[in-house]
Structure formats: structure tokens, C-alpha cells
UniProtKB/TrEMBL annotation:
PANTHER family: ADP-RIBOSE PYROPHOSPHATASE, DIHYDRONEOPTERIN TRIPHOSPHATE DIPHOSPHATASE. It holds the Pfam family NUDIX. Residues 45-187 form the Nudix hydrolase domain. It comes from Trichoderma citrinoviride. InterPro entries: NUDIX_hydrolase-like_dom_sf, NUDIX_hydrolase_dom. PROSITE patterns: NUDIX (PS51462). Transmembrane segments: none annotated. CDD domains: NUDIX_Hydrolase. Signal peptide: none annotated. This is Nudix hydrolase domain-containing protein.
Amino acid sequence: MAIPNTAIDTDSSKGSPVADFAFDESLVEFSVPKADWLRINNKAFDGILTSAFIFDGQGRVLLVQRAATDSMPNLWEAPGGAVDAGDASILAGCAREVREEAGLVARRMVRLVTEGLPGRTEGWSVFTNRDGTKVICGFGFEVEVEPGREVVLDEREHQAFVWAGEEDVRRGEVEGRKIPLTGAMMRNKLLEAFRLRREEK
């Protein structure tokens, strides 16, 4: 069952929803601000990041290439980024990143996407920043977007995009173009996103 997003942007003079999206009832725990999620789950992570797995009508996933001047230059990933303190919820933070990084509008948060590793029951990944001073929690979500919109990148963060099939991800190549990913964690989540969609059919 899909639940409407009811998070209100208190900074808006109209008090309108921060994003007009729905989310599956399995994602209700992520419909709260990040500070509340950390408190409810008794976690002390220094930050929360989200990744959005967006599929087109041909079942391909959107990948974006990081800018040459950014950290992890020229590597490929799903759109996403940090959930901000001002985001009304973790899901709203994901929707904001989809808009900022790809110019797309989230319409439905479909499901949680984990790394799909045997024996792992938690729904998040944990990693550190580059200098190892902060511990970050990462969530992945399959996201349906408003149809008919073109991908528009923020060139300060990303320089190119491709739509990749499952075998493209496995090979690390799309139509002869190499797509080295940001790491094993991203590859695992991408392949798990494809697996979950297959199981649904």
C-alpha cells in the first residue's frame, strides 16, 4: 500500500508538503527526520546518506558520473547524497537529492534496497568518510519518478549519465563505455535492486 507523504515544510509560507510523493508502507520508519530515526534506533552515526535507484521503461537503472573535480572523480553511482538536518524526513532528503542531482521529480518511494549480502539483516550500510573521522549510515531506495522529464545534471557534482542494464553493471560497461563504480557497496546495491524487481514479476 502506498502512503502519501505528509511531511510539512515548516519554512514554507504555505506549509506545503516538501515533495509530492507517496511511499510504500514498508518505508514508514524513514518518514521521520534523520535525528528522530537516529534517536528511535539508538544509533550515533555522524550522518545519513541515501541512494536512489531509478529505472526507465526498459528496466535500466540511472547512473551518474562524478565530476572530475569532486571526491571519487569520474566514478559512477546512483543519484543520492546526504540527508540534511532541514529535510522533513529521510525519504524527503532522498527526493531532494533526486531533484538536485538528476533534475527528476520523485513520485513514489517503492522499497528499501540493501546490499543483499548473506547473513546481513540490517537495512543499512556503514562506511567512513575519506579521512576516517566520521561514520556514515547509507540507505538505498528504489524511486519512481515523474514520467516525461529529461535528466538534468548539476555539473558541479556530475558530468555524465547513462541508463544501464543488469549485465552492463556486471560487466562495468555500457555500449563500449567503461563505467567504474564508486565501490563494491554501490555495485551490490545496484544488483540487489535488479534482483528485487525480478522477484516482483
